[in-house]
């Protein structure tokens, strides 16, 4: 009987330790704008790579509203008259998309801008900036 209790105790302790470890690992990777347990907001500034830490209580509703307006304006800059299709000249997936666009005569149904990013550093930089404005990690995106 004592062996069963010992095994059950070891399983419970193991489960608790495993759960604690899992939750601690999950909380160590904060989102870009997150409120931590200490009541602070940590914001990573993309341009300079610096961190700005403020007390959550000191952030006013007005500041949050102004930030929301700035975010909407940043997205509005990306929403021009025409969508932009970024592609790579030797990308097989991009070729498949181009074939689809040709086959279905999409060019006559919709106006959009095509920009090659593998040979053009300027277009590649523009794609990176667009990804950052959308809150995406440029290292995790690609074409098409």
Please describe the topology of this protein.
Layout: H1 2-28, E1 33-35, E2 40-44, E3 51-55, H2 61-78, E4 84-87, H3 92-103, H4 106-109, E5 113-116, H5 121-133
Parallel strand pairs: 4-5
Antiparallel strand pairs: 1-2, 2-3
Mean pLDDT rating: 71
User: Can you tell me the overall shape?
Assistant: elongated
User: How would you write the strand order of the largest sheet?
Assistant: 1-2-3
Order of helices and strands: HEEEHEHHEH
Strand content: 5-15%
Give me the Rg, rounded.
24 Å
Q: Report low-confidence residues grouped into runs of 5 or more.
A: 29-59, 71-76
Distance N terminus to C terminus?
64 Å
Give the structural class: alpha+beta
Q: Could you describe the largest sheet, including whether it forms a barrel?
A: 3 strands, antiparallel
Total separate domains: 3
Question: Could you characterize the architecture of this molecule?
Answer:
This protein has helices at 2-28, 61-78, 92-103, 106-109, 121-133; strands at 33-35, 40-44, 51-55, 84-87, 113-116. The chain has 144 residues and is an alpha+beta fold. It folds into three domains: 1-30; 31-78, no CATH class; 80-140, no CATH class. The strands form two sheets. It has a three-stranded antiparallel β-sheet, with no helix packed on it. The chain has a two-stranded parallel sheet with strand order 4-5. The longest helix has 27 residues, at 2-28. It is elongated and about 80 Å long. The model is unreliable at 29-59 and 71-76 (pLDDT under 50).
